[in-house]
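Re: that chain you flagged

S.,

Sorry for the slow reply, it's been a week of failed gels. I finally had a moment to sit down with the sequence you sent. For the record, here it is as I used it:
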Amino acid sequence: MEATTAVELTDNEFQRQFEATFAGKMAKIEYSLQERKIFLTKIFMPEGTEEHMNEFIIAVFNEVAEREINLVPTSPEIAKFMRSNRRKYKKLLPVGINI
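Prediction finished late last night. Pasting the structure tokens below so you have them in one place:
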């Protein structure tokens, strides 16, 4: 497991987004929860925090794995990350979904 250099992840259920702060700026991954699947629909990284995007995504993937639900990356950036790390995170995808 990769070290997630202490990404403090918050699940803002009201706004349906995961939040983390990097360099004093809030990054967000919006989601939609349906049955036992979470659709990661959009990622927002404030200017100057882009280098933390992968560690933020890893923290969210780890949270999803802990909840034992499936993940569907509909955001292009998150889908690209999933493709690049397919072997490690394939178990998070629902059966029949290929990225």
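What I noticed first: The helical segments are 53-67, 76-84, 86-89.

Talk soon,
D.
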